Write a sequence for this structure.
């Protein structure tokens, strides 16, 4: 195909986060010798984003320590990283992408790994000085610069990002209030026992929680945040507001070019989009998942980004592959390590395994008698051994699951033997 563009790459990767970086790395590991370029909106080399709301925000790690690979790695492998580039349009017929600066780049294969952008508030005051997200390094650096004089911080959103940020900032002696629209934190991703456990932990560390609350506006003086007005007309004092209410997948150029999708771009088991020679991986890729009973989902996790990147890279070089990775996630808050495997949506029964009071327990989610997910708090063995139960959708009697003296490894083996 004739490509009318000054620059051409055999594989062009849009997005230089986990998914994009892993795609490039895997292609080279598998012996791909063609030209590869990564386009990133940010000025930085690829880095670990989850650390932004954890180790980087707390000062535990310098930025250089969260780079996915050292700077020399990319040049040594002939991987070109083009920073500060935002794609404005894709022309699948010509195999060309165009950047917002008017630059045209041709490709043989395009991998869309653009991730997403933080969902913003829409209320009055949403764009004031002092309103922050924590999605990229610039966000985290801006928040760090604002911290010293701030006393009161309001976190809007009781998901993982909001809770992790609250945990870090409470250790710095700040007054933290979490505002959540639903009646419990983590309501979209976990059962009530886990929500109530983390609510109690945050309160024990001095964090205030305002549940079932709506934000009317952000109040200001001189263009800077002074408070958050809630639906009950109360005002929470604040010099900083952190918004953690999800992301909007960055797929508009692909959808405009005719790709199937909506909340993300739809991909098949090889991570191909409906457009010829275009793949999508990571946070922006929507796919059919057997772990969600065949529903179309997006997964926002490092592991999903890496797994899909590996599948896409394998497919590009002609290997027979199919994406079927088990979803898993983690979150660090205070001295608690939460590890989740599977997807708990639509569960119909919960089994509590262990004692939350001892701060080491697991929650097992069942649907029609089958194990579909586990949340494990400071319980790494349950997490490791529970993976087999989730993968096989094992049927295990709840009385066996609730007994912490019963090894999940033994239960997985027993249910496997029953099927054979």
């Amino acid at each position: 195909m004739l490509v009318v563009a000054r620059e051409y790459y055999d594989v062009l990767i849009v997005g230089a986060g986990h998914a994009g970086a892993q795609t490039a790395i895997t292609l080279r590991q598998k012996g791909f010798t063609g030209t590869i370029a990564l386009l990133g909106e940010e000025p930085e080399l690829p880095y670990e984003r989850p650390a932004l709301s954890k180790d980087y925000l707390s000062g535990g790690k310098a930025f250089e320590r969260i780079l996915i690979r050292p700077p020399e790695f990319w040049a040594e492998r002939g991987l070109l990283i083009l920073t500060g580039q935002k794609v404005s349009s894709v022309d699948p017929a010509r195999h060309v992408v165009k950047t917002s600066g008017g630059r045209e780049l041709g490709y043989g294969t395009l991998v869309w790994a653009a991730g997403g952008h933080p969902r913003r508030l829409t209320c009055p005051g949403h764009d004031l000085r002092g309103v922050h997200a924590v999605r990229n390094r610039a966000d985290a650096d801006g928040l760090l610069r604002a911290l010293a004089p701030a006393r009161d911080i309001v976190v809007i959103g009781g998901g993982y990002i909001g809770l992790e940020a609250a945990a870090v900032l409470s250790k710095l002696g700040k007054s933290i209030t979490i505002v959540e629209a639903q009646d419990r934190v983590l309501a979209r991703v976990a059962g009530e026992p886990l929500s109530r456990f983390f609510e109690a932990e945050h309160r024990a560390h001095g964090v205030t929680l305002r549940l079932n609350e709506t934000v009317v506006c952000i109040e200001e003086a001189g263009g800077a945040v002074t408070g958050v007005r809630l639906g009950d007309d109360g005002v929470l004092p604040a010099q900083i507001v952190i918004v953690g209410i999800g992301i909007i997948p960055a797929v508009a150029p692909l959808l405009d070019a005719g790709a199937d999708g909506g909340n993300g771009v739809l991909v098949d088991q090889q991570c191909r989009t409906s457009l010829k020679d275009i793949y999508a991986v990571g946070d922006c890729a929507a796919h059919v998942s057997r772990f969600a009973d065949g529903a179309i989902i997006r997964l926002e996790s490092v592991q999903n980004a890496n797994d899909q990147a590996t599948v896409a890279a394998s497919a590009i070089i002609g290997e027979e592959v199919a994406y079927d990775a088990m979803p898993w996630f983690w979150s660090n808050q205070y001295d608690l390590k939460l590890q989740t495997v599977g997807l708990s949506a639509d569960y119909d029964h919960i089994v509590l395994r262990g004692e939350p009071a001892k701060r080491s327990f697991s929650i097992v989610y069942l649907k029609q008698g089958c194990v579909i997910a586990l949340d494990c708090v400071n319980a790494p063995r349950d997490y490791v051994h529970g993976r087999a139960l989730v993968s096989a959708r094992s049927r295990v009697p709840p009385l066996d699951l609730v007994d912490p003296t019963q090894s999940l490894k033994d239960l997985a083996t027993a249910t496997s033997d029953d099927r054979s």
About this structure: The chain has a mean pLDDT of 93. The chain is about 25% helix and 30% strand.
